[in-house]
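Below is a concrete protein record.
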Amino acid sequence: MGMRPPTSLSLSRRSRVLLVAAIVLAALLLLGPRLTDTYTNWLWFGEVGYRSVYLTVLRSRVILFVAIGLFVGLVVWLALLLAYRTRPVFVPVAGPNDPIARYRTTVMGRLRLFGVGIPVLLGLLSGLVAQSNWVTLQLFLNGGDFNQQDPEFHLDIGFYAFDLPFYRMVLNWLFVAVVIAFFASLVTHYVFGGLRLSGREGVLTRPARIQLAVIAGIFVLLKAAAYWFDRYELLSSNRKAPTFQGATATDITAVLPGKLILLSIAVICAIAFFAGIVLRDLRVPAMAAALLLLSSILVGAVYPLIVEQFSVRPNAADKESEYIERNIAATRQAYGITKDKIDYKDYQGVSKKSPLEVPVDHTTIANARLLDPNILSPTFTQLQQLKNFYGFPESLDIDRYNLNGDVQDYIVAARELNPQALSGGQTNWINQHTVYTHGNGFVSAPANRVNHPQSENTSVNSGGASDSGYPIFMVSDLFTAPDKQRIKVDQPRIYFGEMIAQSNADYAIVGGIEGQAPREYDSDTASYTYTGAGGVPIGNWFNRLAFAAKYAERNLLFSEAIGGDSKIIFNRDPRDRVQKVAPWLTTDGNAYPAVVEGRIKWIVDAYTTLDKYPYAQTTSLDGAVEDSIDKKTGRLLPRKEVSYIRNSVKATVDAYDGTVTLYETDSSDPVLQAWRGVFPDAVKGESEISPELRAHFRYPEDLFKVQREMLTKYHVDNPREFFTNNAFWAVPNDPTIETQGGSANQPPYYVLLGDPTTGKPVFNLTSAMVGFGNRQFLSAYISVRSDPDGYGKFTILRLPTDTQTQGPQQTQNRMTTADEVAREKTLLSNSNKIKYGNLLTLPIADGGILYVEPFYNERNTGPNTSTFPQLLRVLVSYRDEAGSVKVGYASTFAAALNQVLPGAGALATPFGGDPATRPKAGVLPPAPDATQPQPGPNQPIPGTVTPPAGSSAAKEAAAAELNRKIEAVRAAMKTGNFSDFGRALDDLEAAVKAYQDAGR
């Protein structure tokens, strides 16, 4: 029987040239951006001083790429070579149109192409996939011991964290290589006649049988090894998830012995496959394969199911008790919520004492926060923006400062460049990237005080009246006179920030050009030339070409605004900078600014994590941390499953020069120690943290949210009680969001609480907890210290279950439906946006719970008008010793507090006031004079404005106008006419602004 000769395709010289050119062009399009990014990243890592990190990661990726690529490619090449060399000498042809014969002829004509090209291609693909496992490789090489053993196999936790993932990775790639080699051999034998499917039974030559049997036997041996490692994977089983995780009673009594049985069967089956080398009968390997499949179904699935249904489930509370205990202990250890870090206290939720009798309450009440950083961004923008291209993030931050010996928490923000606010001629390339390059200034406002324009230098705190309801700004920047600087900033310019990086191209060209005036905008009367260490030199043409290609921007090549000393700054988001220099860390969702040693520094919390910690509960980071603020800002951690987390690193990013510094904060973390072995110079020791910097460290919100999610269940000690879920807690929904038609977890709040030992204010991160299963009564109150003394120490107040203390949702409902509140809310809602601020839960009176909530008003005057929130009222709620819940509602915190705790309003005075007027512990203030009018809920704005002596005529005129507008609002409020009231509020807002402007 003859064969049709193969047809060959010949290309002309021109066609070959065009083909080569097309291939080169395609390669440039494919590899060009990668090469450009590699070079610019090399320059950037050199700028920030972390080039060793870049090289180590690159080296690790290359090693894995080469090792796995060579291994897979070599195995496939050997399989193809053996199959080809053992091919039959004569292969019958089925007919003139036999397709296999045509394929065989094609392969024979291009043996080198197929014999080398296929292994190379598969090796390249395998290497590209494998290089992403560099983390597994480095942790295996540098991981150590946890000095803790698992309760089942009694192996150190380090084996599960560092060694087992590497062994599984190696085993997986062995599987990949063997499976590809098997199919490569099968196809090659089929093409060259070693395997023929013609006839009833087909034909398999001896060499083909031997090669395929050996490869199949190796595969089954690898499966036996996999069964061995599967035993250890059981300790991260999710059979009972979400109740608990880890090896269950079924896993230990049925699955674990089943794995050993399957391992033995797999070894026997592998021997049977190897027997195929000498036996011509393939029924033995076939029966072995059937036995392995059948046993995996019966032993691996059916038997555990029977044990689960008929032994474990009917007696689950008893059978699972031991394994629940293991899960509780491991989860507490993995998430840092062990009992040595938590002080559990029983708390009644009601008290017979007055806060005046409890010294620690003086501090707590005096520092009750009235300014909500998640509402006041528009207010900061309107009052402190200065220029249209400056701005503040949607959610502001809270930090504390010690000024004149008094610790006070502040709403803080950096006045950043907002590229998205540039308009008109500001948006051309020159202005956008060489003129408007930076923000300017650090803005702060005491969190418990609002402005009262009685005089230029006088303000009234949370206990006093507020005619404006605006923050008292303590600004440190170029635009503030030195004598008014409360927080000293030596370098206020901000080249690196959160808002700057929001633009699609966040780069800026900085640095001077010889012979030219400064170009960068600094003020209306002065320009500036950047002198910081940040930025990559862009004066030479090669670098200009590289960045022009990176950003696809020809102006980088031809602009005369770029000189020999010019630099380009990019990657300007603080979180992104930290994540890039420390890719082994997970950065917190929020960076916050702090003034440290005269410089504005962004502080970024960073976490080490593991995805499989034996017996520990697994959680999704993005799901655990999402709350009402995250829904608003879109600020979330990556979608990552973890079962271990530590805040072992805190990073700072200098807002001026972009310097990134990593500090170790938990030397007991084995994961961090492993990474310090990988990158020995990347993280500085804890001893290098200055006291001033440490004073601004906060306990990170995202870690706290993960831990409180775990504490909803893992505060329970008794396994049976854990199994019934009866004692579980839940994170409350944010009631201020629900009232606006949404639903999300209530965020934790930073507050200053009085220390029970010293009475001094302590910066804590706190959260209320409610009952499980939509039981909205308060179940617990969690707080964790952020101050250096006792940092990370938890206190959990456990409320009784036989009595019921109202939780945040119930309190919100009670407060907003009170007669006075509902009446005024109805009056306001027609022409105003009502915004409820953070509902703070404060433990006071040695057993009582005080709720405090600011009530903001924003004029609803249309989409094109600039309105911003104004603190109008304060809501408080307190349950007295008789069990009655009282609601206070007034224009000041002091007045509202007096309505629920008569006389306690005297405590609403920060300790920075006159010592002679401070209330003394255990001494009740005199009762209010009944003959004098008292501020009530329907008296919106008491007092008038008196300008200070020696004021300018403009100031006095503005004060007089402001007094007239205050009276107008009072009159409109009394009439109940909504339109008159709305106009009066508009006029008052304008008058307040005019008064403030007159005082500048």
The longest strand covers residues 599-610. Residues 377 and 394 are 6 Å apart (CA to CA). The chain is about 40% helix and 20% strand.
